[in-house]
Design brief:
By secondary structure, the chain is of the alpha+beta class. Helices cover 27% and strands 27% of the residues. The N terminus is likely disordered.
Length: 345
């Protein structure tokens, strides 16, 4: 039901004009429309600016595409607009709560998606560096309030040694810390503004497991050498471009062409270890890639059940779990060899 006591003729008019004639009532529906969004070639330019710009290393020539895919989302629709998106544009109509949690403002959601996008760029860079054998380093992202490290370490500190052992990945720090007990004191060596320092930190107790020690920092990785990777896409949010970004960086810094010069698209989150994770809206992303002329689509293995329901046309949809899978799929496709796909066995 739309509005109690409103004549049918008025309701019919409201479907067109979006409100009740002669009133300030706007008849929007609590639903969102999701459809295929634009694609961006991460090997190319947007308005004359490279999507990915790399400094500090020779960049190899590339061809073909590595298209990142997106989902368009429309909210604040009238009933007529929602019906149009469903019937004419074949969008999915979903409750607004599925994409916009209750009590979260549009601005808060925008900031969350923007932060997730930036985080995916950082993870993509680290995953690419590790694949290429380039050095990385551990950077303090944050220090927990009242934690053992609170008075000793600062955000942006580069950790070089923990308990006398060199570290280049956050996982190494975690492993070394867990080899100790709560109450133990460890030496942490770091660089702060390129100046070396050492802190003696007495480990606390992990509140989630009293048997485990607590240092009290969150960490990330970054390239340790001269290579700098800059990403130049604006007004896009979420973590789902991570895999494609990482592949593009690898392609630009490697001889030859990962895609064999073919038109490739894909989606998936990326972890620093190169593992690829699932994302939302994959059916729309497949359809957007198909409409953009992609020949091969790289899909996270955990999205394959949903991917099988999408209309991929003549496009091959490959199933991948990590960066190596994605590279193998492109090599096999370009060479005419069988590709592990999302098709049911």
């Amino acid at each position: 039901m739309i509005a109690t006591g409103v004549p049918l003729a008025v309701i019919t008019a409201a479907l067109v004009v979006g409100g009740v004639p002669g009133t300030n009532i706007k008849l929007t529906v609590p639903y969102a429309a999701q459809g295929a969004g634009p694609t961006f070639n991460t090997l190319g330019d947007v308005q004359g600016t490279p999507v990915i710009d790399i400094e500090g290393a020779d960049v190899d020539e590339t061809s073909g595409t590595l298209d990142m895919t997106t989902v368009s989302v429309r909210t604040n629709m009238t009933l007529g607009q929602a019906l149009s998106r469903w019937l004419i544009h074949h969008d999915s109509i979903v409750p607004i709560g599925q994409i916009m949690p209750k009590d979260v403002s549009d601005e808060e959601m925008r900031q969350y998606n923007e932060q997730a996008f930036v985080a995916s760029e950082a993870a993509a860079t680290v995953a690419a560096m590790r694949h290429l054998g380039e050095p990385t380093r551990v950077v303090v992202h944050g220090v927990l309030k009242d934690a053992p490290a609170a008075d000793e370490l600062h955000p942006a500190d580069v950790l070089t040694k923990v308990a006398g052992r060199e570290v280049t990945e956050p996982q190494q720090v975690q492993k070394i810390v867990r080899e100790h007990a709560p109450g133990d004191t460890i030496e942490v060596e770091y660089l702060r503004n390129n100046e070396p320092g050492t802190a003696s930190i007495k480990l606390g107790t992990n509140p989630e497991d009293k048997a485990l020690p607590l240092l009290g920092v969150t960490m990330t990785s970054e390239p340790a050498g001269d290579i700098t990777v800059n990403y130049n896409l604006n007004d896009i949010g979420g973590p789902s471009a991570g895999m494609i970004f990482s592949l593009a960086v690898i392609d630009k810094l490697s001889p030859g062409e990962l895609n064999g010069g073919r038109k490739v698209a894909g989606t998936g989150t990326i972890a620093e270890d190169g593992s690829v994770g699932p994302i939302g809206g994959i059916a729309h992303k497949i359809e957007g890639a198909r409409d953009g002329g992609a020949e091969l689509f790289l899909a996270p293995e955990k999205n394959c059940d949903e991917a099988r329901k999408a209309d991929a046309g003549n496009m091959t949809v490959a199933s991948v779990t990590n960066i190596d899978d994605a590279i193998s799929a492109m090599e096999d496709f370009a060479a005419g060899r069988p590709v592990t796909t999302c098709a049911a066995d």
